[in-house]
Amino acid sequence: MVTPSDIVAVFLAFVTLTPAILLLGLLARRGAEMHKTPPPLKNLPFVSVIVPAYNEEGTITNTLLSVFALNYPKEKLEVIVVNDGSTDRTNEICEVFRKRGEIILINQENKGKGAAMNAGARAAKGEFVVCLDADSEPHPDALMKMLRYFTDDGVACVTAALKVKNKSEFLSGAQAVEYVFGIILRRLLSFVNAIVVIPGPFSIYNKNILLGVGGFDEHNLTEDNEIALRFLDRGYKIQNCIDSYVYTIAPTTLRGLYKQRLRWNRGNIENCIKYKNLFFNPRNPYVGFLILPMFAASFGAVFGAVAFVTYSISKNLAEAADYFWRLYQINFDINPFLGQLSVRAIKDYAAMYFLNMTVMNAVYFIISALLIFILYNAFRHSGERIRSHNKLSLLAYLFIYFPMLSLTWCAAVIQHAFGAKKQWYHKTEQQKIF
Amino acid sequence: MVPQNGTAKDILVIIAVFALSIALIAGTLFATSRLYDYKIRYLEGKVSALESQMASQPPSSSTINELGEIQDFQDVWKIRGDDLDIARLAQASIEKNDGHYLPIYFFKNGACENECKDQAFVLDYVRLKHKGKTLIIELDTNTNNTFVQNLIHKYNIKKTPSVVINGEKFEEHVPAGAIESRLDNFLAQKYAIVIVDGVQAEDSKAVVFNLLDGFSDAGIPLTLGVVPKSQFNFCEDAALYSRVNSADNIEVAQQSRPDGMRQGLAELEKCLERVPKTFVDFNTITPDTLISASALNFEAIITAHDYYANKRDAFGLFHVAATTSFNENATKVVENCALFASEANLCVVRVSISDLRGSETEKYEYIDTLASGLAKLKQSGVGFLTASQYKNIKELRKWA
To answer: Average pLDDT of chain B?
Structure first.
């Protein structure tokens, strides 16, 4: 008999397995090209690094120092900090660098990251502009490696391999694993020009193309997703350099993470609607037929999954309470049950567990297996070591991170449906939360 | 910039990706739907293995455990369609169970999900804690199996969960402690006392000696209930007291009235080498009897009198599980004795000479059947004692 759980499982499997199969296919076919980069540039272009900053007094110094440490000729590099109406000591700190002649400082009233980036791009002298979030630090070789991809005229942007700096903490540790997954995801999708989000921490844009398409949308919650879709809509390419590392700071509290992901998801929903013409558009079939439809469908699947997980959790909690009561009745004497543990008993239990498997269980196992396989490859190709990660965070990522995040998907859909006020996730909020 | 266009190859790849995804999901659906068949086959294999183990006599403790474990798996009752193998195996186990395992029937059904799970957990705990000592059979009251329905009818099961422990029905949750105390009782040594009621000196004739011989051959001790001082004095029957003196497994217990107990004791002391201060009576015991017995320092009183059988506040009073009348079929007497020994750890068999009916041959046949039946019971582990021997192994409460 088909149960509601089976229907949710099939839908969930479809929206998860389809992109997963694409990734596996790409991994199999293009895995050897993962670290293949275009040849070094003969003539290095002038590059402008734009650092939009809003209340970044705690991180901007390190960010700027990391830019100064880039292995790139200083005469071909300018750093533009756009102080987006900070109310803390950001301006004061930047003034010190400006007085030394190390940066160009643009002060403007608070207009948001998109407006700050546009202001920086307009002021930039460089042929290429780098967007660098004020809480991120690129690896010294990142810029040099990424610029090589611009030998193709159609490339509008090159993204880096994003890593979490504060990965030792539990929650940010789980995000660190997610970011490692994102590294291989972006690289594989770059093979079929299907990157739909250009991360803020360190992405290089062809300035002419960027300004040519109108610059960043200044009223968008996720201008990085919007600009990516606009590039794809206009037929440009977005590349990825898997060997260019950029380190950023991830939220360490649930509230911080929730607000960040809520904004991302709301922005993504808006942009999906804005660029609905990309859906089922043969101009970019991977994006049009696979990535965007599956992405949109996954919002629906998430509702089912959340309902199922909520039901499962409440059922499991009730069962746990029952077990506690039962154990209480036998004075918590679990020795007889422990005495049962034998290879044969475990084998029997495992056999019966397998034989009692539901569609949801099977889907969960298949998705988990694929996830673990792709994650293994992600670690292999991203230069990350599993042992350097928080083990609890790794487990949390595998088992509870996605169900937890799916709540923000649901909240985003609900907020969008009811037209809730948009809120940018400001650093000050995160600091308060810290 | 020339807009990028997807090639036919890209479209084919995407179609292949979708096809593979759909095939994988369809395969998963098909596989999970087939798992049920594999599960039934797997359980069938386990049941078959169990069946072959059941050939042993009696079922081993590992077989019993296996039976308990296999019942934990869902759908086990559905093996082989309507032919409930587990019920059949359970039935076979119970038939072969000769007192080694405490039989527990657990009646459940889908309507009592949580209550039944609570009870099942406790039963599982007891089963695992006392491995091989319990035979717990989980029975779904909704099944049409004859064995199950017979048990429901036999124990008048009206609600679930219900638990029947060695014949004792509980219609509420039975805690582990209650089951364990019954298990302790079940596993305790079982005893039986055979009392020949109403032996008088004048009766020391062929039938009595035939009975003494028969039980002597079977190795079963006897307690002879006598009135020592009456119309015929006990010590005037030399043949009888000689026989008592010469046999280790025969003893004499008084059945006198309260005012005759002192004289009876004196009479027995005249001719018996051992005079146990034991009183047996099945009908006429009164408070005066107890007072007299106490005054004479009698150590044990055995009675089946309803009043005293239900009250345990008398000095040295054994609670008699039941008695069996001489008139009953000898085989039935043995069966009852086995049942009482199992349930109450003590069986008292009353053999009444005065109630004996029929020809001499019929009387001898009855004695033979009874003696051989009780001998088998002895072989199965029931300890046969005289009244004073039983008294010695029990700590008796003082009569206030």
So the answer is: 78
Question: Could you give the CA distance from residue B47 to residue B43 in angstroms, rounded to a whole number?
Answer: 6
CB A80 within 8 A of CB A50: yes
ipTM of the prediction = 0.81
CA distance A221 to A217: 9
Decide: B252 and B276 in contact? Cβ < 8 Å.
yes
Q: What part of B 45-74 touches A (C-beta under 8 Å)? A: 69, 73-74
Tally the domains of chain A.
1
Identify all chain B residues contacting A329, using CB atoms and an 8 Å cutoff. 118, 121-122, 175-176
The one-letter amino acid code at A3 reads T
User: For residue A382, what is the domain's CATH number?
Assistant: 3.90.550.10
Residue B354: other Cβ atoms inside 10 A = 10
Q: Are strands B102-108 and B162-165 parallel, antiparallel or unpaired?
A: antiparallel
Q: In what order do the strands lie in the sheet with A104-108?
A: A104-108, A77-84, A47-53, A128-131, A203-206, A155-164, A237-248, A136-138
B323, B348 Cβ separation under 8 angstroms: yes
Shortest CA distance from B34: residue in chain A? A355
Find where tokens 């830019």 sit: A67
Domain that holds residue A402: 1-434
pLDDT the model gives residue B3: 44
For β-strands A203-206 and B168-170, DSSP reports them as unpaired
pTM (predicted TM-score): 0.66
CA atoms within 13 A on the CB side of B114: 9
In this predicted structure, the answer to whether residue A434 has a pLDDT above a threshold of 60 is: no
Mutation target among A319, A352, A360 for the B interface, most CBs of B within 10 A:
A352
B10–A329 CB contact, under 8 Å: no
Q: Going from the N-terminus, what domains does chain B have, and what CATH number goes with each?
A: 56-187 (3.40.30.10), 191-393 (3.20.20.370)
Q: What is the pLDDT of residues A29-69, one digit of tens each?
A: 998 999 988 988 888 999 999 999 999 998 999 999 999 99
With beta carbons less than 8 A apart as the criterion, state whether B54 and B93 touch: yes
Q: By CB neighbour count within 10 A (0-12 exposed, 13-18 middle, 19+ buried), where does B249 fall?
A: middle
Q: Are B86 and B69 in contact (CB under 8 A)?
A: no
